[in-house]
């Protein structure tokens, strides 16, 4: 395959930002009809390399070569005209415009006399949307769509041009399993038309499923290219982080304490019903299930974002009503939300201030023993979570996607809640930092925190949890201790095949 002529080549790309050498002499190429993964730790330079190719950044040195011709890429529109389509890690849509306007922004079809041909625009758009099997249409306003659907709009945009290469920068981070199937079909289709696909992801199982080759960056440097069919997890990880991962769980056996949180017969309309569980101090309870099983909604109810329609919540044995997030925080509960982009960060503010920004008024008067020395907090978590940035003064918007996520996680951890709920804690996080976050969760438990981890990744729940609650369609199907759980019975439980009640 590698003897084939590349669709495009990047050669000797150099890119620096103040205090950071993001790309150091990187070369990379894509062959027509291949899916080429670009991997590396958070901050390794993947998005930056693709932004150079996509005309968003000018390299300090190096060349882009398309059809054997060097090209100076000065803007995203020019890149698009050369057949390079970029589906971004951070969504870049105009929320107040419709789906059709977003897809054809800058290239709306016109009638003579320069008027927009709305009929044509909407027809063209709807035919693309049909291919993607989405549940919205050309005239829907983008602001009304879920994050996953906005991602589908970005993908739809890629299908409007004669593409030579399509760049997917972590496309599945917020997609459901059904949407992923559609995405992989789209990729297979593009591939069969000879389009070169560049695929950035931290999810190994996807990499093995859909890619042909894997190129790895580390600290802005090219580390090598592997054939997917001939490599292993370990080999890729080794190339990415320069060492083998220690996945063994910290054998810190600690005492499990009293029940901190107890939930009885909790229901919220059609979202979830009759939920019963408890979490003890020193314990990590994992919630596993498909997207839509009701896990996030339970977390939101415990955090005062939703009002339950029935049932009781007890904290340290006393029944409570949680009126709002401020109330939840005052009672010692905190939630690291699933959608960290929308709920967690002020992009224009520096790292330290984002990390220590009090979430809600009144925080300082709650029972938290909040850490107070802001720079010390920053330094501690920068080290612990391996946050790659020159220093606390850096604007958060300039951090790589995964490093932005680490800032949000650090912010919640530094508040020392007594009950910590984390929803998809390692989404977008590289494998090395992932295991660091898992260790941190275990460590918090050993210090006496009660922790709930919601995750769609089976290895993650298996690894961090003392007990696992399997949910299906708004109900708890089964609770497993870490001794009795297996991958098989977990899959059965979340598919609704077995249940406590049937047993
Ligand atoms: N506009 C910018 N200003 C300053 N530094 C930047 C800018 N863009 C990227 N960087 C820095 O360049 C480095 C590479 O970032 P990049 O976004 O390419 O990482 P990545 O490999 O995509 O990581 P992730 O997996 O977290 O998305 C990081 O240290 C990042 O902070
Ligand atoms: Mg990135």
TrEMBL record:
InterPro entries: AAA+_ATPase (IPR003593), ABC_carbohydrate_import_ATPase (IPR050107), ABC_transporter-like_ATP-bd (IPR003439), ABC_transporter-like_CS (IPR017871), P-loop_NTPase (IPR027417)
Domain spans labelled ABC transporter: 8-244, 254-498
Alphabetical UniProt keywords: ATP-binding, Cell membrane, Membrane, Nucleotide-binding, Repeat, Sugar transport, Translocase, Transport
SMART domains according to UniProt: AAA (SM00382)
Membrane topology type: Peripheral membrane protein
Record-linked Gene3D superfamilies: P-loop containing nucleotide triphosphate hydrolases (3.40.50.300)
Predominant cellular place of this UniProt entry's protein: membrane
Pfam families hit by this protein: ABC_tran
Gene Ontology, cellular component aspect: plasma membrane
PROSITE patterns given in the database record: ABC_TRANSPORTER_1, ABC_TRANSPORTER_2
SUPFAM superfamilies named among the record's database cross-references: P-loop containing nucleoside triphosphate hydrolases
Compartment(s): Cell membrane
CDD domains: ABC_Carb_Monos_I, ABC_Carb_Monos_II
One MF annotation (Gene Ontology) recorded for this entry: ATP binding
PANTHER family assigned to the protein according to its UniProt record, in alphabetical order: CARBOHYDRATE TRANSPORT ATP-BINDING PROTEIN MG119-RELATED, D-ALLOSE IMPORT ATP-BINDING PROTEIN ALSA-RELATED
Family: Belongs to the ABC transporter superfamily.
Protein name per UniProt: Sugar ABC transporter ATP-binding protein
